[in-house]
């Protein structure tokens, strides 16, 4: 199986069967994100305690890329410090913008690497980064 096929499979699985698409009853903060150009609209809910993202979930609608990206992000940041979660968000955004391409640097993005090729699809960049910008905005408010 080619790497692109693996990535396509990862994205398909996260968009069809998202593990983190639900309300978070214990949320300590929430933030809406919207991509007016294509109609993607999400609400990220976070449980942040003692500077750590204990849990993350989301609700909303959007294309397969935005939904998969949001689900992957929610998985990746669980258990991370607020600083680490923000750093990962910035690293992901840099990857999608094509500013960060070093494989070793990007390794910690784990399944989010499946979205790397979105950098070559300008129309889809906003779909991929919506959740990550929304996360960063939500965590900025946690300070």
Automatic annotation (TrEMBL):
GO terms for biological process: iron-sulfur cluster assembly. Pfam families: NifU_N (PF01592). It comes from the Bacteria. Residues 7-95 form the NIF system FeS cluster assembly NifU N-terminal domain. Gene3D superfamilies: 3.90.1010.10. GO terms for molecular function: iron ion binding; iron-sulfur cluster binding. Belongs to the NifU family. NCBIfam families: SUF_scaf_2. This is Nitrogen fixation protein NifU. It comes from Selenomonas ruminantium.
């Amino acid at each position: 199986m080619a790497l692109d096929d693996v990535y396509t499979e990862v994205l398909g699985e996260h968009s069809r069967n998202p593990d983190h698409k639900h309300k978070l009853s214990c949320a300590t903060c929430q933030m809406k994100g919207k991509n007016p150009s294509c109609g993607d609209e999400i609400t990220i809910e976070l449980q942040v305690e003692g500077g750590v993202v204990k849990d993350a979930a989301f609700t909303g609608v959007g294309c397969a890329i935005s939904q998969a990206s949001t689900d992957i992000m929610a998985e990746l940041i669980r258990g991370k410090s607020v600083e680490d979660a923000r750093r990962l968000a910035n690293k992901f955004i840099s990857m999608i913008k094509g500013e960060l391409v070093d494989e070793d640097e990007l390794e910690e993005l784990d399944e989010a690497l499946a979205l790397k090729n979105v950098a070559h699809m300008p129309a889809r960049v906003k779909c991929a980064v919506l959740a990550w910008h929304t996360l960063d905005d939500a965590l900025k408010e946690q300070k």
